[in-house]
Specification:
single chain; about 200 residues; mainly alpha; two-stranded antiparallel ribbon; 11 helices
Length: about 200
């Protein structure tokens, strides 16, 4: 059995938004933020992150200065060296942190939930007829979450994450990955070096 996200309203849960991002990347073989860089305007996201205490005034100012008055993309914030100074948000743990922040932001506003839902259904820019991959019942593959990915086995500490290999972390359930980084600061998640053995 699997959990199926049937409407944008279900995306009020940030974890389900995270699942959609993850499933998109698994099925499309593309980074969701790179592929949907305008899913939200980066400037309000930037100030929301400042208000939540995720980033400092200095980091906010640096992103704004780098933009030089131009449009700020999500990748300018979550996939860049101003906020994720070590990893650009591209390590396994850094990426999960980036997507958990984006999920927390997007789940709050109905228009954003609709955009996310549409981006993996019938408004999937860059896909044939703007339709994301579907199963034989016409359900978007990004909206089908396996039961094993919905289960939390334990809450991992920063020390446990530092001792995990990339393979071990990537094999955790979506729920375990999401919960593991939720209470980490960006700096903490960015500081975890990837181990391959």
């Amino acid at each position: 059995m699997s959990y199926i996200i049937k409407s944008p309203d279900e995306l009020k849960d940030p974890f389900l938004c995270y699942c959609v991002f993850h499933r998109f990347m698994e099925e499309a073989g593309e980074d969701y933020i790179d592929y949907n860089e305008r899913i939200v305007n980066g400037t309000p996201l930037l100030f929301w992150m400042l208000g939540k205490g995720y980033i400092s005034d200095k980091e906010t100012e640096e992103v704004l200065e780098r933009s030089n008055g131009k449009y700020i993309y999500v990748s300018d914030i979550l996939k860049d060296d101003v906020i994720f100074k070590e990893s650009y948000g591209d390590t396994s743990i850094g990426s999960v942190k980036s997507y958990s922040i984006l999920a927390e932001y997007m789940c709050q506003i109905s228009e954003f939930r609709q955009r996310l839902y549409d981006s993996v259904n019938n408004n999937a820019t860059g896909f044939i007829d703007d339709k994301f991959y579907k199963d034989e019942d016409g359900i978007s593959l990004a909206c089908i979450i396996s039961d094993e990915n919905m289960i939390e086995s334990k809450l991992y500490s920063l020390e446990e994450l530092k001792n995990m290999t990339v393979y071990e972390f990537d094999n955790l359930s979506y729920k375990d990955q999401f919960n593991a980084v939720r209470n980490l600061t960006i700096e903490e998640s960015d500081s975890v070096e990837e181990k391959y053995e």
